[in-house]
Write a structure and sequence with these properties.
The chain is mostly helical. Helix content is 68%, strand content 7%. The protein has a three-stranded antiparallel β-sheet. Strand 2 and strand 3 form a beta hairpin. Helix 3 runs antiparallel to helix 6. The protein is elongated, with a radius of gyration of 23 Å. The protein starts with a helix and ends with a helix. 30% of the residues are buried.
Length: 284
């Protein structure tokens, strides 16, 4: 079935999707030479990517051990889906208030660190459950919900931050995810083979604590959105356009690239929105 769907996707791409008459480079999503070094040397991005890697290590390693711990607690494997479904639904719903609060009151760093702390607590509870309660089913379920809630909130906050930092930086984010998945699965299986689920969970708690310490050194992210505005032929020829864009309230950065017929703007949309910037450009 997967092969059939893949083949159908190829046919649709070749036969249905129209070909563009002209192609303009978009720095928000394309590879631009000379940008890799800037991305790899950006300490804020390196800390974010480290956190994303830690998150996926925690998820993969814990969910190598968690099903075995729940089965040991007496919950049949055929009933695990109930725990997963409930924790997923509840944690997804719990994420929304945190995102709204972080965006509305501009407390992204505080909310993000709180989510990492929740992950730490979840790992400690899972460890205590495996050690003292014989991995009781209620304790595993509660800890699983805390872990899912913390991980979804942390990942959503990271996406909100990196969502303003596109292009090559998305590549670093995705690479960190896959590295974390690979390390987490292997590490979780190895640690479980050494001393069981307890060792997996305590190792996860140590990693969450390290992640929290690294996160505490991060600065509050800039509350700006990255916009790409297409320029008319007349606007491209205007040498003062970049200066006028920078002079607008809330604009933190503006770059005009004539060969791409584009202006790249980082702006606080609470002060100036896209419509106002496009009106400025089109008024030329």
């Amino acid at each position: 079935m997967i092969a059939v769907l893949a083949l159908a996707g190829i046919v649709i791409t070749l036969a249905v999707v129209p070909s563009a008459d002209t192609h303009l480079l978009n720095r928000e999503s394309s590879i631009v030479r000379g940008s890799f070094r800037k991305v790899l040397s950006n300490s804020r991005l390196l800390k974010l990517n480290f956190g994303i890697m830690c998150l996926h290590i925690l998820l993969m390693s814990s969910f190598v051990a968690l099903p075995l711990a729940m089965e040991k607690a007496g919950l049949a494997a055929s009933e695990h889906w109930i725990v997963y479904l409930v924790t997923m639904l509840v944690s997804f719903a719990a994420v929304v208030p945190f995102i709204i609060y972080a965006e509305k009151y501009r407390r992204m760093k505080q909310v993000f660190m709180g989510c990492v702390a929740v992950l730490f607590c979840a790992e400690v509870l899972l460890w205590l459950s495996a050690r003292t309660c014989g991995a009781s089913s209620p304790a595993c379920s509660c800890s699983s919900w805390l872990q899912r809630d913390g991980s979804h909130s942390a990942f959503a906050d990271q996406q909100r931050v990196t969502g303003r930092l596109q292009g090559h930086r998305d590549g670093g984010l995705l690479t960190s995810q896959f590295i974390g998945v690979a390390i987490g699965g292997s590490l979780g299986g190895w640690l479980y083979g050494l001393q069981g689920a307890g060792l997996v969970f305590i190792a996860g708690a140590v990693l969450a604590a390290l992640w929290f310490l690294v996160s505490s050194t991060m600065k509050e992210p800039p509350y700006v959105s990255s916009l790409r505005i297409t320029l008319s032929e007349l606007a491209v020829k205007d040498s003062a356009l970049e200066s006028r864009l920078k002079a607008q309230p809330g604009v933190a950065e503006a770059i005009v690239v004539p060969e791409e017929r584009s202006a790249y703007v980082k702006v606080d949309t609470k002060q100036t929105n896209r419509g106002q910037l496009e009106a400025l450009v089109n008024s030329l």
